[in-house]
Specification:
EC 1.11.1.7; secreted; globular; about 50% helix; 5 strands; 14 helices; 2 domains; two-stranded antiparallel sheet; Peroxidases_AS; peroxidase activity; Peroxidase, domain 2
């Protein structure tokens, strides 16, 4: 009789805990609620676990670092940093949006980092997918030779994602300087933040479909976005007419897998692969403050690294809209 009562009590407790973990929260988590010490007591092994998972992934494939960094950007720009980009709800969700479809990768790397976090923290339900992604992006940058920074934690995960929002809010490869400034400004990020964050293109690749028009000479009639002739010829060979639009070329042809200031050196030499890249140098007219900033980053890698780290913290503070249903997802690909 007593044993049966204890078992019933345990079952009730387990069900209650599951309900707490699974229940959606009306999201009002703001940047002020985030803290670098959020998991210090509940899971002190979290950050080493995520970094170890990322180190294994980057050692196996350096492109994994750039892919995870891009996932974080594309997540935060759509209703804040809430891991909505990880949800498997295509075609209605963010994965099916034009800037994401057929190009986002690294989901398996985030899954491995989440599994490592759950193992370090005593099981699922403690660490959100959004926090894992924020840590993984930071570690991706530092493992590729870039800066590190203290990540503020305590994010929750969205239960839904919106393809329409992703299509509307994510800057595209054909964006001009004014639209880039406006897009980042709508998120509370300054033109300086925008320029520093664009330096993430110092690693990774782009698909032919995103730059073929620029390097062919048929799609870039803006004098401010002129292209070095030798570089254009090189990229035409990498992406010839008739080639699969999903073929890729490095965004920084010199050091494609090292996080450095090579991207800005490329821009000064008119070797930006994407139209939106080259707009950062020349897009505001000769002698602009924008051009001066690119020149500064091109000659001073430490200044770029410092500004990039600060801008990543600010972008990582972007919170979901008030009223967004939030939770700590057990599986990053679907709501609880």
């Amino acid at each position: 009789m007593a044993g049966g009562a204890v078992s019933a009590s345990l079952r009730t407790l387990v069900l209650l805990l599951l309900a707490i973990v699974s229940s959606p929260l009306a999201g009002r988590r703001t940047a002020a609620a985030l803290s670098t010490k959020y998991y210090d007591k509940k899971c002190p092994g979290l950050q080493p676990a995520v970094r170890s998972a990322m180190a294994r992934a980057v050692a196996a494939d350096p492109r994994a670092g750039a892919s995870v960094l891009r996932l974080f950007f594309h997540d935060c720009f759509v209703n804040g940093c809430d891991a909505s980009v990880l949800l498997d709800d295509a075609p209605a969700g963010e994965k099916g949006a034009a800037p994401n479809a057929n190009s986002l990768r690294g989901f398996d790397v985030v899954d491995a980092a989440k599994a490592a976090a759950d193992s370090a923290c005593g099981g699922p339900g403690t660490v959100s997918c959004a926090d894992v992604l924020a840590l993984a992006a930071r570690d991706a940058v530092s493992l590729l030779g870039g800066p590190s920074w203290a990540v503020r934690l305590g994010r929750l995960d969205a239960r839904t994602a919106s393809r329409d929002a992703a299509d509307a809010l994510l800057p595209g490869p054909a964006s001009n300087l004014s639209s880039l400034v406006a897009s980042f400004g709508a998120k509370g990020l300054s033109p300086r933040d925008m320029t520093a964050l664009s330096g993430a293109h110092t690693v990774g690749r782009a698909r032919c479909v995103t730059f073929r028009g620029r390097v062919s000479g048929g799609g870039d009639d803006d004098p401010a976005a002129s292209i070095d002739a030798g570089f254009a010829a090189q990229m035409r060979r990498a992406c010839p007419d008739g080639a699969d639009g999903n073929n890729v070329a490095p965004l920084d042809a010199v050091t494609p897998d090292r996080f450095d200031n090579g991207y800005f050196q490329d821009l000064v030499q008119r070797r930006g692969l994407l139209h939106s890249d080259q707009q950062l140098f020349g897009g505001g007219g000769g002698g602009s403050s924008q051009d001066a900033l690119v020149r500064k980053y091109a000659r001073d890698g430490a200044a770029f690294a410092s500004d990039f780290a600060k801008a990543m913290v600010r972008m990582g503070n972007l919170a979901p809209a008030p009223g967004t249903p939030l939770e700590v997802r057990i599986n990053c690909h679907r709501p609880n």
